[in-house]
Input
Amino acid sequence: MTFSRAALALVLMACAHAPANVTVTAATPRAQPYVETPQPAEDFGCGVFAKGGVDDSPTAYRACLERAVAAETPCEGGGSPDLLVLELSVVPEGLFPEVLPRLGITFELPKVERVEWFGTGPNEAYVDTREAAAVGKYSATVAELQTPYVRPQENGHRIDTRWTQLDGLRIEAVDELFGLTVRDWTTQALETAKHTADLVPGDTSYVTLDIAQTGVGTAACGPSLPDRDKLKTAPATLTLRFTTA
Output
């Protein structure tokens, strides 16, 4: 599957109706292809002159993008026409429950054939089940990412993802790691399904990138979920870099 810059716009569709307490900003630099040539530190382009070389670290890249957007000028010396940095900032306002099930964004893509990721795997991993997973590079179809429980329920999450490649779309963590879930049906369809056969893939894949989730364990069998595995309501941020092949 081939993605263009239009595919990056799909990422923001999920934020079009974001509540007032959620702020989403996207920075898309307009610049020439990256060339590793030293430049004065005061220029502060996307290739920052540091220690006799070019600093293309996430911190330098982000600072450059922020400056480019603030000044409404191109980010000279770096970036790409097919790059977008998404900053998600959530600040609770009003009445909220003390513990949230999850916090992040969900967006749609044309049906994804294969998912690669560097993070926990190969099977699903949540905050309270991560000990059963190992950090590494993995690859799977969307169907293989699902865990077919007898009764459909939350499944298929990969916590602590560094980056993922969804066919031609690459998503990278800039600061904090993110949680990754990719399905061929919506979360609502998963919640209402009574049998696995009720979940029918279509022409769309649904991608959820989480800041965090509450653990999946309950007191139905065993002890209740400890506080360390609960997502408490509090301000949170997530910064992601999207690029297309």
Q: What stands out?
A: Residues 58-71 form the longest helix (14 residues). Residues 23 and 89 are 5 Å apart (CA to CA). The chain is about 15% helix and 35% strand.
